[in-house]
Amino acid sequence: MAKKSSKNHKDATRESKVTSTQPGKGWVQSPNETLRVSTDFDLANFDHASTPGWDEGKVAAEEFLESRGNVLSELQERFFAAGKFGDQRSVLLVVQGLDTAGKGGIARHVLGLVDPQGISLASFGVPTKEEASHHFLWRIRRALPKPGKIGLFDRSHYEDVLVQRVEKIVDEPTWRKRYGEINRFEKKLTENGVTIIKVALMVSHEEQGRRLAERIVRPDKKWKYNPNDIDTRLKWDEYQQAYQDVFIETSTQWAPWHIIPADHKWYARLAVTELLTQALIDFDLEWPKPRWVEDVQYRRLQETMTESETLEVNELRDVVVKEAAQAIESFDDEVATIDSSPTTSLTELTESPKPKETHDPQEVQDGEAPTGRTTGQDASKDEKKAKKKDPKKDKKSKKSKKDGKKKKKDK
Ligand code: AMP
Ligand code: MG
C-alpha cells in the first residue's frame, strides 16, 4: 500500500523540512469547514464536480498532495510513537459512498502516504451469518482502531441505515431507531479518545455511469464490477434520499459528516488528506520522551564499543542532535502554517443537528448508556480552535521561526 518504505518516507520528510514552500496558494478555505454538512444541506442541489476551497486545479493539487503527504507521514509517525508510550487516542476515518465513488482510492492514495504499520483497514460487506446474529454495531466495535492507529472503514455502520433501508432488509422503525444509536455510539467513542472523521464521497449519476462502463469493459477493472451494481444504480433516488437523511440525522458536533464532491478523484483525495492532516495537527503531537536517562544509556552503549567507534559517535553526537532539533522545529513551523490556514471560524457555521434521544433496551444491553447530548466535547474543541487562532500563539510560532532562521545563520 505505501509507496515508500518507512525509512524513505522519513528521509523525504527531512527533505521537505528544508524546502517547505508549497506550490501556489494551497487551500483557500479549509475543507474542515467548507465540506462539513450544515442543517440545510440538500443533496439534490449538490455539485458533484465542484472543488470547494481549492481553486488551482488538478496539477497543483497533485503537487500539493505530495508535500502534504510528507507532513501527514511525520504526524502519523509521531502519533504511532505516542501510542506506544501510552497515548490512548486513535483516529477513525469512516468512508461512505456508492459503488465507484472512490472509497478504495482513498485507502490506496491517502493512507498510502503513511507507514502501513500505523493503519488498520476494515471493509464491511454483506454481514456474515455470525455478524447478522448480533447487534449491528457488534462487528463495528471489533474493528475499531487501537491507540496510536488510524483506522479506515471502507463502508461502515452507515450501511445499516442505507442499504438495509433501501433494500428493505429491516423495517422503518428499526432503521430510524438506528440514527440515535449511531449518534450515541459515536459520542461514546469520542469520549474514549477516538477522533471520528466521516467522509461521504458523492459522485453524480453520470459519472457513476462512466465509471461502471469502464469496469465492465476494461480487463484490469472487471474485478471491481458486480452485476448487482446496476440494481443498486436503478434505485439511485432512494439511495440519495437515504444518504440525505443520514447526513441530517447523524451529523453531530462530535462526529460531523463531510460531503466530498467526488467526480474529480484528485479532489476527493486531496480533501480527505487535508481532513486527516488537520485532525492529527489538532492532537498537538510531540515525540515521546522515554523514561530512561540519555547519558546513562549513552555510557552503557560506549562500553560495548571500541575506542575508535566511541570517538566516531562522539564526534557525530552534537551534529545529529542539532540537525534533529532543527528538523523538528521547522516541521513544527510548517505545521503551524497549516494550522492557521482556516479562514472561517466555527461560530460562522450552522450548528449541527441534535441527535434524537431514544432509550432502547437493546442498546443498553449492547453496552451503551443512552447519553443524549452534552456540550463538554464541543466546548473543548471550540477552545482548541480559539487557542489556535490565539495571536499569542501566532507570535510564538513566528518567533520560533525567526529563531530558527537565526540559528541557521549562526551555523
Ligand atoms: P463492496 O464495497 O463493493 O465490496 O460491496 C459490499 C456490499 O456489501 C455492498 O453492496 C454493500 O451495500 C453491502 N453491505 C455492506 N454492509 C451491509 C450491511 N450492513 N447490510 C447489508 N449489506 C451490506
Ligand atoms: Mg462494489
Describe the structure.
This protein has 411 residues and is α/β, with parallel strands linked by helices. It contains 17 helices and 5 strands. The chain has helices spanning 6-18, 31-34, 57-84, 103-110, 129-132, 138-142, 163-166, 172-191, 205-217, 228-234, 236-250, 265-282, 294-302, 307-339, 361-365, 376-388, 391-410, and strands at residues 90-97, 119-123, 150-154, 194-202, 257-261. The chain has a 5-stranded parallel beta sheet with strand order 2-3-1-4-5, with helices on both faces. Helix 14 (307-339) runs antiparallel to helix 17 (391-410). Residues 99, 226, 229 line the site of magnesium ion.
Features:
single chain, 411 residues, alpha/beta, 5-stranded parallel β-sheet, 17 helices, 53% helix, disordered N terminus, binds adenosine monophosphate, binds magnesium ion
Helix content: 40-55%
Spell the H/E element sequence.
HHHEHEHHEHHEHHHEHHHHHH
Radius of gyration: 23 Å
| Largest pleated sheet | 5 strands, parallel
Low-pLDDT runs of 5+ residues are: 1-23, 342-411
Structural class: alpha/beta
Termini separation comes to: 40 Å
Q: Which outline best applies?
A: globular
β-strand percent reads 5-15%
Give me the count of strands.
5
Sequence of strands across the biggest β-sheet: 2-3-1-4-5
Look at the structure and give the mean pLDDT. 83
Q: Provide the list of bound ligands, each named once.
A: adenosine monophosphate, magnesium ion
Secondary structure tally, helices: 17
Task: Name the quaternary structure.
Answer: single chain
